Q: What sequence folds into this?
């Protein structure tokens, strides 16, 4: 179990994280928030890359920074911009990181298994410099799973990927969550909507909401509307209300608006989604 | 650790420009050796200067070398004496041959004509142990003759010869001609320094450029373990380069050898001249290579320092090279131009700094200490200190 207790972080007098309290058990946790919400800062503190101003990160009750906790050995991490050695093959890269993680003996079987898991076994002897963005992310995921970690932290794992690669990666994440704590920090709602057991909505260094995706969506029932209007009306409404989708249909604009009150008399309430919950919190900033 | 070590080596070998620069510098080095050897045999050429050593080439010198082959006779000693007298008379003039004044005279550091003859005598008579007594007697005579204001080093050289022949059999150093120029040749030492700094900066600062720094930091004991593995890979790589350059230099000298057997005046075995050890030529070559490698490694550790502080590998490389340039400039100030180009080695630069007139750090302890061995030990200590401090810096800042 991983706990974050009253965690604060300040940079140059400005508070980035405001006393966060979170508990992570087995399953997938989606840490959802816009750019600048503090997600990466939180991830960096948990992984030990940054030191917190105050508060603690506990792993099974022991401070994660303490060697006795064994957290570093049980952690798998994929940073926001993962690096790689372009002259290494995929297999060599995993061997290098295995050695770095202190995994004893040759673990060729595990490396082969992980490459197969992320669908890179045919590219095992190919240099990383020739990989596409999606392949590099999958290689990054494979290295994060070396040593069978208990906690896997993925910071914006699908950033820059095409839709097909995003779906592929998302499916992999769902598989790795069995018996593990997986924390996915992202600003892309669909990345976690279907795979996360718990979603944490984070804005301006604070946790606004936490719960199952369907619970968070249900919390905004009656506040999500669909409106048909002309272009001028669409422009006016989108300036006034938090607007999700906007598309045209037979010379009319159709808007999806999140508002506690009915935005127009013609507005029709619709089934809420996680994205609507995200929009509502975003509008409250 | 073995796996990490092999993979760190692979990183070095895959550096885009490293192998190219190695090949280029090796080619320049070998060409330079060939050129020097070739110029030695050309009569009446202008004096060719490289790394502060003046190679005087002319017919008289070649004749002198030829004539002094074979057993030393009284007649030859008399001839040498006469040449010395002539050199003394021509002291103020710049002429050809081995009697030429040093090209870069600086106050207090002039190399005199007499000194050159003394060194030739030492080189030639090194082959003939059975004639030591007459040579020693003659050396005493010569040193009395040349001991005046314009021969500040002649008496020292005479004392050196007495010490060498009288007490130990280090004369093996003088026995094989081709090893002498090998030891004095300094360009490969400079190249080794540059390559070592390049390797260090790419291996350490390069991690930030690849974006791997977060993963390395997050791994358990990643940074500590990795530091030592990288250092081991760096040292063995620099050692391999040092051996490669030494072997290539030796090979080139061997290829260039001429039937006349002409060779350059003997200089840098002075570094080991006062050594209490009795080692073979191969041992001397190995020691000398290690001496250069350790010096290069010590400077590379300075590049490792800067790699922790600077974001990219090239600035770290440049910073280390500038440190070396600073040391060399300091030596230029105190020891003259010869000093700068003689010692491409951080510790040797430091110990060859003149504190006062005729007082060098190497003589502070009051007994003959081989500059070379002192530098070797000094570099070991310097490397150890730098390694541990660099580790702390890398752990905190990289």
A:
């Amino acid at each position: 179990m991983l706990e974050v207790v009253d965690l604060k972080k300040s940079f140059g007098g400005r508070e980035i994280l405001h006393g966060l309290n979170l508990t992570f058990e087995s399953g997938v946790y989606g840490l959802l928030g816009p750019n600048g919400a503090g997600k990466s800062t939180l991830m960096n503190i948990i992984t030990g890359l940054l030191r917190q101003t105050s508060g603690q990160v506990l792993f099974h009750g022991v401070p994660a920074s303490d060697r006795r906790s064994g957290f570093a050995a049980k952690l798998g991490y994929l940073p926001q911009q993962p690096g790689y050695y372009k002259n290494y093959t995929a297999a060599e890269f995993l061997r290098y990181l295995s050695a770095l993680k202190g995994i004893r003996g040759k673990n060729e079987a595990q490396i082969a298994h992980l490459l197969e898991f992320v669908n890179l076994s045919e590219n095992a002897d190919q240099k990383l410099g020739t990989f596409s963005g999606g392949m590099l992310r999958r290689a990054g995921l494979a290295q994060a799973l070396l040593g069978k970690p208990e906690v896997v932290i993925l910071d914006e794992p699908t950033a820059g990927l095409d839709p097909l690669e995003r779906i592929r990666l998302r499916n992999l994440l769902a598989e790795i969550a069995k018996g593990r704590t997986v924390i996915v920090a992202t600003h892309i709602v669909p990345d976690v909507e279907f795979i996360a057991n718990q979603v944490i909505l984070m804005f301006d260094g604070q946790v606004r909401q936490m719960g199952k995706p369907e619970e968070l969506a249900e919390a905004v029932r009656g506040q999500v509307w669909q409106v048909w209007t002309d272009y001028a009306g669409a422009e006016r409404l989108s300036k006034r209300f938090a607007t999700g989708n906007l598309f045209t249909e037979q010379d009319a604009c159709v808007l999806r608006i999140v508002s506690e009150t009915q935005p127009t008399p013609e507005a029709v309430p619709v089934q809420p989604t996680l994205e609507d919950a995200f929009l509502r919190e975003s509008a409250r900033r | 650790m073995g796996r990490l070590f092999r993979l760190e080596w692979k990183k070095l070998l895959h550096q885009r420009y490293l192998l190219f620069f190695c090949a280029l510098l090796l080619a320049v080095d070998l060409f330079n050796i060939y050129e020097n050897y070739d110029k030695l045999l050309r009569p009446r050429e202008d004096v060719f200067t490289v790394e502060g050593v003046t190679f005087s080439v002319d017919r008289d010198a070649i004749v002198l070398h030829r004539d002094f082959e074979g057993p030393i006779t009284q007649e030859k000693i008399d001839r040498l004496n006469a040449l010395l007298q002539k050199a003394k008379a021509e002291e103020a003039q710049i002429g050809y041959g081995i009697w030429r004044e040093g090209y870069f005279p600086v106050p207090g550091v002039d190399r005199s004509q007499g000194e050159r003859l003394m060194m030739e005598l030492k080189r030639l008579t090194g082959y003939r142990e059975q004639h030591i007594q007459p040579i020693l007697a003659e050396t005493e005579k010569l040193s009395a003759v040349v001991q005046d204001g314009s021969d500040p080093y002649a008496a020292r050289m005479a004392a050196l010869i007495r010490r060498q022949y009288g007490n130990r059999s280090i004369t093996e150093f003088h026995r094989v001609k081709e090893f002498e120029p090998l030891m004095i040749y300094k360009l490969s030492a400079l190249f080794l320094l540059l390559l070592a700094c390049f390797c260090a900066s790419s291996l350490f600062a390069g991690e930030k450029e690849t974006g791997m720094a977060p993963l390395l930091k997050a791994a358990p004991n990643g940074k500590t373990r990795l530091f030592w593995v990288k250092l081991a890979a760096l040292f063995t790589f620099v050692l391999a380069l040092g051996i490669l350059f030494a072997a290539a230099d030796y090979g080139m000298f061997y290829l260039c050898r001429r039937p006349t057997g002409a060779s350059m005046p003997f200089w840098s075995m002075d570094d080991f001249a006062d050594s209490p050890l009795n080692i073979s030529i191969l041992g001397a070559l190995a020691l000398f290579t290690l001496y250069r490698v350790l010096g290069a490694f010590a400077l590379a550790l300075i590049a490792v320092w800067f790699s922790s502080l600077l974001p990219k590998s090239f600035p770290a490389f440049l910073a280390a090279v500038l440190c070396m340039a600073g040391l060399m400039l300091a030596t230029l100030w105190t020891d003259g131009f010869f000093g700068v180009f003689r010692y491409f080695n951080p510790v040797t630069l430091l110990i060859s700094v003149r504190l006062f007139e005729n007082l060098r750090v190497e003589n502070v302890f009051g007994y003959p200490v081989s500059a070379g061995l002192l530098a070797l030990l000094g570099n070991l200590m310097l490397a150890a200190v730098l390694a541990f401090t660099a580790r702390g810096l890398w752990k905190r800042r990289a």
Chain A touches chain B through 27 residues (CB under 8 Å). The CA atoms of residues 8 and 269 of chain A lie 39 Å apart. The mean pLDDT of chain A is 87. The two ends of chain A are 31 Å apart (CA to CA).
